[in-house]
Amino acid sequence: MFAHNVIVLLALALCSTTIVRGTETNGTNTFTEFAFGIISNKLQTLQKQLSEMEFAMKQTNEKQTTLLARLDQINIDHERMRKEIQQLASKKDLDLFMINSGINLRSVSFPSCKKNPSKRSGKYIMQPTEKDEPFLGYCEQTAYGGGWLVFQYRYDGSVDFYRNWTEYRNGFGSMDGEFWLGLEHLHRMTSAAKHELLVELKDFDGSYMYASYAEFAIGSEVDQYPLTKLGSYTGNANDSFNTLLLQGWI
Fold this sequence. Notes:
Keywords: Coiled coil, Signal. This protein is an alpha+beta fold. It has a domain at 4-11 and 109-247: Gamma Fibrinogen, Chain A, domain 1, CATH 3.90.215. Helix content is 48%, strand content 18%. The strands form four sheets. A four-stranded mixed sheet has the order 1-2-3-4. Strands 5-7-6 form a three-stranded antiparallel sheet. The longest helix has 85 residues, at 2-86.
């Protein structure tokens, strides 16, 4: 009886062991399948995110390509317009340019040569304030640090400077040669912002002199365009302006 009982117990023990082992095997498979499912879902999520990123990058690249193409076209148009402006020489040319091109000159104008970002010397459309009519001016953008508006240029005597009041008010000559910008333009420029004055003198022997004034402004036509501001002087030429002021000429 004792021996039989032992056999039964052993048999039960073996059965129990077998059952327990069977349960452990099924649990391992279930855990593996569960873990694989999590990893698979994670991979699918990452794949979706990657696809979305690729699509977004593609759209961004397409937008950048479009913007670059527009920028190239703007640069081409700007350069073409710059060359057309360089062909202008007088107010009459500017009026014709405005009519033929159909553009708003205010959109391509600058309040001063100093605020003109270009480093090229040449002709530009100037507009001191939004209330002022644009006009053609010559900007010296390299000498003395650039940002200088040339309002008088004489070098060979080809233009007669013995003119009447109206011509000195409005300007005369050609910016492709000798010219006078005009007192009204000069008044509006110096009234809109602080300006310096630089006078350059060169002779045919190559001698060079200059006179620089830290501030410069002239009044309106109502007061006959008087010199209203003249700052401190530096240079190697005679201080003619202050001499004339002391003598009561200006």
